[in-house]
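Tokens for chain A. Residues wanted.
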């Protein structure tokens, strides 16, 4: 060990165990590229270039900006959409990377981000990842092993369609873990969509199991929302999920938390549908919104 590193570690000991952990990230042997992957929170990640990992058999792509990491951005795809669609069909990834976001793109397949499954859940749907899996395995593994999406850093989440539904529920599960969210074309009041075949295949028919349909229903859970900023976007010509779904959620949040008005944005885009042409068009506004709240967030140290 060099004299410089000995002095550094002695300094760390003066500041306690927490500082020692932070200083350990600056130990000798790390390349300049590795050092540049540190986030604003000062937490080190061993992933310094674009990488695809396997987390419990699920592909997760990490894309790393060239400079310092502003925040970790969890990007949730729609139901049965590829995790790479965001990057291949829009310029969202390119723009987000240019702004300093480290992107986390999991392959969520046909997950409905349910809290659990039931005897009536269709057999093949029971293989899909639940929301507890997202917390315990996906985020838990990335935070513990790689320092990504760690509770001590600045985290934001973006989702489209079913991914927007999932993003809103993650914010409701653990208020404050994500400082901001952007949800496009999502469904937030499931009982109003009682005819939806995918939801029926997950929870059973609404008329038989109405209570189940409120377990993972954002509009039912608005009391749990706290300080997170939220951008809701929806195309008015969406024929997959009615634009009213975003209006219902916005109104429910505002009614329950009127003091959060300045943190809530609802953008109903005239003439836009449920497609990447619309979702790509939202990129500048979404990233501008996330930038504001990521810059205001103070990492836990």
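Reply:
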């Amino acid at each position: 060990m060099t004299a410089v590193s000995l002095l550094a570690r002695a300094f760390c000991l003066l500041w306690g165990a927490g500082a020692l952990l932070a200083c350990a990230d600056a130990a000798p042997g790390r390349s300049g590229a590795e050092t540049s992957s540190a986030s604003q929170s000062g937490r080190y990640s061993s992933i310094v270039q674009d990488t695809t990992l396997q987390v419990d058999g699920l592909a997760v792509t990490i894309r790393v900006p060239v400079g310092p990491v502003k925040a970790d951005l969890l990007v949730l795809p729609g139901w049965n959409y590829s995790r790479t669609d965001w990057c291949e069909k829009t310029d969202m990834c390119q723009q987000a990377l240019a702004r300093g976001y480290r992107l986390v793109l999991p392959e969520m397949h046909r997950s409905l981000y349910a809290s659990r499954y039931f005897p009536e859940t269709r057999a093949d749907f029971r293989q899909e990842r639940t929301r507890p899996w997202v917390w315990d395995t996906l985020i838990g593994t990335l935070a513990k092993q790689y320092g990504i999406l760690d509770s001590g850093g600045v985290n934001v989440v973006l989702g489209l369609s079913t991914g927007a539904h999932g993003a809103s529920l993650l914010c409701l599960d653990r208020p404050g873990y994500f400082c901001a969210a952007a949800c496009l074309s999502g469904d937030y009041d499931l009982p109003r969509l009682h005819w939806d075949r995918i939801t029926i295949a997950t929870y059973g028919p609404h008329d038989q199991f109405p209570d189940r349909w409120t377990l993972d229903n954002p509009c039912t859970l608005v009391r749990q929302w706290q300080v997170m900023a939220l951008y809701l976007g929806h195309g008015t010509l969406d024929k997959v999920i009615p634009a009213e779904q975003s209006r219902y959620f916005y109104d429910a949040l505002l009614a329950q938390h009127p003091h959060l008005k300045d943190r809530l944005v609802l953008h109903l885009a005239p003439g836009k549908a449920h497609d990447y042409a619309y979702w790509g068009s939202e990129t500048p506004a979404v990233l501008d919104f996330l930038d504001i709240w990521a810059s205001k967030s103070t990492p836990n140290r």
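Strands lie at 51-55, 58-63, 71-76, 101-106, 155-160, 180-184, 229-235, 264-269. Confidence is low (pLDDT under 50) at residues 1-42.
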